[in-house]
Amino acid sequence: MHCEGTLRQAVPASGIGLHSGTPVNIRLLPAPSGTGIQFRRTDLEGFVVEANSANIAKVSYATSLMKKGVFISTTEHLLSALIGLGVDNVVVEIDNLEVPILDGSGQPFVEMIEAAGRKSQQRARRYLKILAPLEMNEGGKFIGVYPADSYRVSYEINFPHPAIGKQEFELEITPESYRNELAPARTFGFLADVEAMRRQGLIRGGSMENAVVLSPDGVVNGELRFADEFVRHKTLDLIGDLALLGHPLLGYVRANRAGHALHTALVKKLLSDPSRWTLVTLAARQAEQVSATV
C-alpha cells in the first residue's frame, strides 16, 4: 500500500532569491503524517505558511504564497521536487521571503531530499482522483485535467526563437521519471527582457549560473541538458504548481502555453467543484478496479 512519506533527517541549503536577489537559507525537516508541506519563516518568529490553494498569492513570473501578509515567493521548483519524489509531509524552514533559485532546476532539491532520505509513514496516502474533465482557456493559453489511473502530464510550448520553437513533452510522473526526465531542466530567460524585468523588481538574483540564457541567436551560457529542456522545465513548474492541490494527483493534465497563473487558476477552480474529484487511497482504488473486473 502506498503510504505517506516524510524525510529521515533535516537537510540544509543556502542560495539567493531569483527575483529578490537576497541571500536565503532553508532547511527541510521531517514532519508528522497529515502535516502536508509547510513553510516556516524563521526570521518572523516561526510563522507558518501552508502550501495550499488558500494561500496562493499574486502569480506572475513565479508561484508565491501569502498568509496574513507573510510572503513566500518562487516556491514552484521546491514543491515540484517534493511532489515528484513522493514527500507528503515536510516543514521548510526559511529565513527570507524567497526560496533560493540554486541552479534554476529541481535537481538541487532532489539531491537534498535524497541526502535526507525518505521515510514511509503509517497513514495511507490520499490521492486527488479526477472524476470529470475541467478545461480552461485564457488568451490563447490552455490547461485541462481529465480522469486517469495515474499522474500523467503533457505540455506544449511555442516560442518564436530558433533555440525553442514548438516543443511537446509527455510523461507519467513517478519518482524515477521525475528524477531522470524533469528535475535537471532549468528555468530560462531572454537577454532582451532583462532590463525591463529588473525595472519591475524581478530577476535581481538572475545570472548565467541559475538559468538558461538566450540571445536572439541561441543559448549563450553553455550546452542544454536536454534538447527540449524548455518544455521540460515548464512541465516541472506545472508539477510544482499542482502541488497546491494538497494531494498527489490521479489524473491526466494537458497544458498548452499555460504558465503559472493558469496552472494555479486550475487548482482553485478544480477544488471549488468537488463533483469533479474525490480523495482515494491506493488500496481503495485497487479494490474498485478488482470489483469492476469481477
Quaternary arrangement of the chains shown?
single chain
Uncertain residue ranges? 287-294
Rounded to an integer, what's the Rg over CA atoms? Answer: 19 Å
Question: In one word, what is the shape?
Answer: globular
CA-CA gap between termini: 21 Å
Q: Architecture of the largest domain in CATH?
A: 2-Layer Sandwich
Helix- and strand-based class?
alpha+beta
pLDDT average, as an integer?
A: 94
Number of domains: 2
Please tally the β strands and state the result. Answer: 18
Tell me the name of the CATH class of the largest domain.
Answer: Alpha Beta
Please report which band the strand proportion falls in: under 5%, 5-15%, 15-25%, 25-35%, 35-45% or over 45%.
25-35%
CATH H-level homologous superfamily name of the largest domain:
lpxc deacetylase, domain 2
Total DSSP helices: 7
